[in-house]
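Re: beginner question about structure tokens

> Can someone show what the tokenized structure looks like for a real chain? I only ever see the sequence side.

Sure, here's an example I had lying around. Input first:
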Amino acid sequence: MGNTELTQEKKREEFQKLKDFLDEVEIVAEIAEKGKLFEDTVLLVSLPTAEELPEDRELTEEELHLAAGYLLEPEEKERRLTRYLMFYTRIYADLSELTRAEVLSMVNELNRKVRIGNYFLGPMDGGEEAVQYRIMMAGIPGEPFDEGLVADALLEMGNAYDVAAGALKKANDETRRRRENG
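And the corresponding structure tokens:
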């Protein structure tokens, strides 16, 4: 793609602009460099949540509701008029009482209610399956992403996280109670 190719430095610069804006609107974000933990430079965001979080201790990964943002551009041979900003998060929920079919049915129902993005059941890095949520935003190559739209999408993502985590927990708890009560 010539001049629009995304180097690690360009990704870092783009993420820094987004991080600065997110800081202004009180959404916590950090840039994670390509290295041992990540195969690419990413923007880690703690999704906004309605959940009351403890202030007297460090939060766990589950409580932080982390989403990882990736900047993507098509290969030279796939020349397009668009580049993409994608955020992924894992929905932490106990699914031990639910069958895979029940989880997939819930994922399908959740997708009917979400305004942007999609939920899916898929493997994580360690191979275990988990419910995840993804949003994808399109942008013009060589131009920065609209910070307000990114912040709004992250607010929606935080809400979608809360909705899914609550629904999955409720279904798991109800299934457990039914099994215990015969």
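Each token stands for a local structural state, so reading them left to right follows the chain. The mean pLDDT is 88.
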